[in-house]
Write a structure and sequence with these properties.
By secondary structure, the protein is α/β, with parallel strands linked by helices. It contains twelve helices and nine strands. The strands form two sheets. The chain has a seven-stranded mixed beta sheet with strand order 5-4-3-6-7-9-8, sandwiched between helices. The chain has a two-stranded antiparallel sheet with strand order 1-2. The structure holds S-adenosylmethionine (SAM).
């Protein structure tokens, strides 16, 4: 099969994902593949066929190929752990700019460890405590920190947000992208998002369970005054302002949606 034919099929079957698919598989942009009339060879065609089949069954590209770009890193991904989204880069950007010098921060609900890895890389003066309830997520966090040589500056702890907070060390700030999808929206998730773990997405009936819990339970965990940087859903800014006892600032993501909530008190 020629590259040109593969490109046609990709555009037909993968639509808006065709470009990313081409990059993942061939490390070449789609327009380049489209102009190549040479044969792709048996091994590559076989791999292409397998990947396309998995994609057409609804599996996300990031699970098929095992990584995703995030901030300026390539974060390893695998089934059972949420795929990092570019929305979350707004939280990283805020943390990189505002964490105090020498800060110990907690990446609460760390998932793949994407937040901790990006912040530790860009703020070499900081250290992290990475927490999640999922062992698969904690293993992946370790892998991603090792990938960038950051493991010596992070402690990884299995931790339940709704459990005992006295096991945590005292920190200067909490960075947290918790599960925040409400019950009604969980019913409308597209097929590829349904392949991601439900416990990484569902934030209770109104989507706010984790925010309430982290705000309440973190009292006493800070070395100084409270400093929490949350990722929020585009429509949750007003609710966060209502439920927080702290000063609350909301910042927008690249699409102009409310995305980051900064609490200080
Ligand atoms: C929205 S994902 C965020 C992952 C990662 N920080 C990111 O931004 O891509 C939420 C994470 O919360 C974890 N989680 C769910 N329930 C939890 C709980 N009760 N305690 C701690 N972590 C929990 C999930 O395992 C998942 O990794």
């Amino acid at each position: 099969m020629t590259f040109e034919r593969i490109s046609e099929e990709l555009r037909e079957k993968a639509g808006g994902d065709a470009q990313a698919f081409s990059f993942y598989l061939f490390d070449r942009p789609l327009y380049d593949v489209a102009r190549d009339r040479s044969d792709a060879g048996d091994a590559l065609c076989e791999k292409y066929g397998e990947c396309l089949e998995r994609y057409l069954s609804g599996e996300p590209l990031q699970y098929i190929f095992g990584y995703t770009p995030f901030y300026d890193l390539l974060i390893n991904c695998r089934p059972g752990v949420l795929i990092p989204r570019y929305d979350t880069e707004a939280l990283v950007e805020e943390a990189v700019k505002t964490l105090p010098s020498g800060a110990l921060f907690c990446d609460m609900c760390c998932g793949s460890g994407c937040i901790a890895a990006a912040v530790l890389k860009h703020r070499p003066d900081t250290r992290a405590v990475c927490c999640d309830i999922s062992d698969t997520a904690l293993e992946l966090t370790r892998e991603n920190l090792l990938k960038y040589g950051l493991e010596d500056r992070a402690e990884i702890i299995r931790f339940d947000v709704f459990g005992d907070w006295s096991v945590l060390p005292r920190v200067d700030a909490i960075l947290c992208n918790p599960p925040y999808i409400n019950a009604a929206d969980m019913e409308k998730l597209p097929e590829n998002v349904r392949r991601e773990p439900r416990e990484a997405l569902y934030g209770g009936v109104d989507g706010l369970d984790f925010y309430r819990r982290v705000i309440k339970a973190s009292d006493g965990v800070f070395r100084g005054t409270a400093h929490i940087i949350f990722e929020i859903g585009y429509d949750q800014g007003a609710a966060l302002k209502r439920l927080s006892p702290y000063d609350c600032e909301i910042k927008k993501d690249l699409s102009g949606n409310d995305r980051v909530c900064i609490l200080r008190g």
